[in-house]
Amino acid sequence: MSSAQxxxxxxxxxxxxSTGNQILGFLFGIVLTRLLAPEHFGVLxxxxxxTGFAGFLAGGxxxxxxxxxxxxxxxxxxxxxxxxxxIGTAIYTFFFALAPAFSVWYENPIYTDLLRVSAxxxxxxxxxxxxxxxxxxxxxxxxxxxxNLGILIVTNVLSVIMAFAGMGVWALVLGGxxxxxxxxxxxxxxxxWRPGFTRDFSRAKHLAQYGALTSATxxxxxxxxxxxxxxxxxxxxxxxxxxxxxxxSLAKMxxxxxxxxxxxxxxxxxxxxxxxxxxxxxxxFRSVGLLAVYLTPLYILLFWVSDPLVxxxxxxxxxESAQVIAIICLAWPALLxxxxxGAVLGAQNWLHYELPVQxxxxxxTAVAVYVGQHYGxxxxxxxxxxVFYLSSIVMFWLAAKCLRARVQExxxxxxxxxxxxxxxxxxxGGLYRLLTGTGGQLxxxxxxxxxxxxxxxxxxxxLFAPIESLATEQARYRGxxxxxxxxxxxx
Length: 491
What we know:
This protein is mostly helical.
């Protein structure tokens, strides 16, 4: 199999896994939002601000360092496991002792037990992280995809059963914890990896140096993501946190479907080709161009149909999150460029340049959320979008400098997406006005009509528009459609 075919196959498997995870998570999420109240999600999210932050310290970025490393020995794995288990135990002890103070701060006694139980995951994580790293290094993305789907099903089925039994927020916490324990057993069976301890950490120094930068960058990026939760929970309350988070997560769903999958493969591919800048530039801009072609139409359609979609899927009590979805959709180009640039900087060990960018973006995010919350959750979403664009500009500048690339190459990569999606924006916008009239709102039937007509128009344009850089993609899909039609006729 050629490197291009291997790259495509890896992306395909990660896409299947990511898409399956997102679809199943979305469906289970519908059930859970019907059974639980926004306050339940808000309480959990508030807790996760702190446990999620500590999670990056527990990993220390050394798993990512093992993936990037040209060679990784059994001693390296033992060193990383010993360090991660020690750090995880220390973090659990910290949260166990400090949990009562969180209850006092948020004036809710549930946080004491909730934090103590949730923090058990830090002791379990090393038993999951190391075998998962083995799979990533071997680029066994098919195994990773199937494993993640299985664990997602187990975790969410348990959560739904407990939510139906009236366990409230505990349904979410215990479901995730039991899922982690199941992961330990399954991963050890798949990989054959067994925990090993060592007192010699000399071999871990080169991993720790890269891992420290990775961990620091991840922490700052995580704090950027959680700034809205932390500020809104103390100003507008848990319900606003739940509504905002639901809208933001749904708006980012197409991004999570595909871009996250491409990130992992791009990171590993560029790490393997670190010295071949021509190849690295090709991988970056080809990834950006294709992602823009495939995902931009989804964001255009989601922008128009957010209101009826939320009403139908989540119910009337979640309608306020629809405006958050529409606003976050506008950030899609920035999310794409920021994510792909991050893969380049991580693979080329330029994290020491990325870290100041993330720190600056964190400060801007905190200010933006603080100002935006005076205008409700819609104001917070608009402020976050602005920060996304500022961050993506700087991130691309760094990636371009690293690979000696030019802005013209980015424009050339995005040209097919622009040629296809500008007409789509005009068509879908015209249909929206036609279906809603003056001052009206789009209903579910109108959303289906708009999506169907616009999707058909985009599909035809994608297949037959004379765009040279898409010729290979067009031929592949036309061939698949032709084969499908012949098979149907034969049947």
